[in-house]
Amino acid sequence: MTERHEPKHEAPRETARAEKASNEKASKSGGLLPGILKGLATTAKTATQRTHTHEYPDVAPDLPPRSRGVIALLEENCTSCMLCARECPDWCIYIDSHKETIPATTEGGRDRQRNVLDRFAIDFSLCMYCGICIEVCPFDALFWSPQFEYAETDIRDLLHEKDRLGGWMETVPPPPALDERAAEPAEVTAANKPPRAARAPREPGAARETRAPREPRTPREPRAPRERPT
Ligand code: SF4
Ligand code: SF4
């Protein structure tokens, strides 16, 4: 083992050197006073400006309405299609469901089957807030909520079940108004279309209307053979 010998007078020498450099710099710029005045001017200027910080948690932050705080679930819309769970890059959505038979409502009709959601959970300790699950859901069952106050002291408590996810639906802001100049949605156009005029029923035994036979096509003139370049 080698012992390290440090010179005893190294630290005072360093301090003296730094002081000398500082004095030289101050003398070059005309002394300490201009620097102090400049600092005071900056302080006075910024003191009158509006602050961009809030004293959270006493003052709630003013978040944009479409902030990605937490994912809310509208359970009635979920069909347990598993699309969100399959597309999630972190595999942090857990869904359990079972099939239920709904008896036919009309005589001779067929029974129907539907999925019943047993479990829908998101592990927010894994979620990276990419929003893919919300984008791919074909039944509008998932929404962004700006709610962000759900920090936990134990990471395991960040696995949120469907009751908690459903509770956040209250905090989901309404969708923004449609653009006035946007084209009318195809569904609205189809709904506003006037119904087709009903055809008059055919007389029993009446012959079908026959189309007039087409004129036979006149045959084309044969093309003249091309002349070969000599
Ligand atoms: S936001 Fe992204 S990572 Fe989080 S649950 Fe949805 S798909 Fe998965
Ligand atoms: S939330 Fe949407 S995508 Fe996910 S299982 Fe339910 S219906 Fe399917």
UniProtKB/TrEMBL annotation:
Phylogenetic classification of the source organism:
Bacteria, Bacillati, Actinomycetota, Actinomycetes, Micrococcales
Q: Domain of life here?
A: Bacteria
User: What EC numbers are recorded for this enzyme?
Assistant: 7.1.1.-
What does the UniProt entry say about where the protein is found? Cell membrane
Lipid bilayer topology: Peripheral membrane protein
Q: Which cofactor does it need?
A: [4Fe-4S] cluster
> Binding of [4Fe-4S] cluster 2: at which residues?
88, 127, 130, 133
Alphabetical GO CC annotations of the entry are:
plasma membrane
Q: Tell me, how does this one assemble?
A: NDH-1 is composed of 14 different subunits. Subunits NuoA, H, J, K, L, M, N constitute the membrane sector of the complex.
PROSITE patterns tied to this protein: 4FE4S_FER_1, 4FE4S_FER_2
- Gene3D superfamilies linked to this entry: 3.30.70.3270
Q: Name one GO molecular function term.
A: NADH dehydrogenase (quinone) (non-electrogenic) activity
For this entry, the protein name equals NADH-quinone oxidoreductase subunit I
Instruction: Identify the keywords attached in UniProt to this record, alphabetized.
Output: 4Fe-4S, Cell membrane, Iron, Iron-sulfur, Membrane, Metal-binding, NAD, Quinone, Repeat, Translocase, Ubiquinone
Residues holding [4Fe-4S] cluster 1: 78, 81, 84, 137
* Reaction(s) catalysed (UniProt annotation): a quinone + NADH + 5 H(+)(in) = a quinol + NAD(+) + 4 H(+)(out)
**Functional summary from the UniProt entry:** NDH-1 shuttles electrons from NADH, via FMN and iron-sulfur (Fe-S) centers, to quinones in the respiratory chain. The immediate electron acceptor for the enzyme in this species is believed to be ubiquinone. Couples the redox reaction to proton translocation (for every two electrons transferred, four hydrogen ions are translocated across the cytoplasmic membrane), and thus conserves the redox energy in a proton gradient.
Coiled coil found in the keyword field? no
Biased region (Basic and acidic residues) positions are 1-27, 200-230
- The enzyme class is translocase
Region of interest (Disordered), residue spans: 1-34, 167-230
Species of origin? Knoellia remsis
Q: What sequence ranges are listed for the domain 4Fe-4S ferredoxin-type?
A: 69-98, 118-147
- Pfam families membership: Fer4, Fer4_4
What family is this?
A: Belongs to the complex I 23 kDa subunit family.
Q: How is the cofactor bound?
A: Binds 2 [4Fe-4S] clusters per subunit.
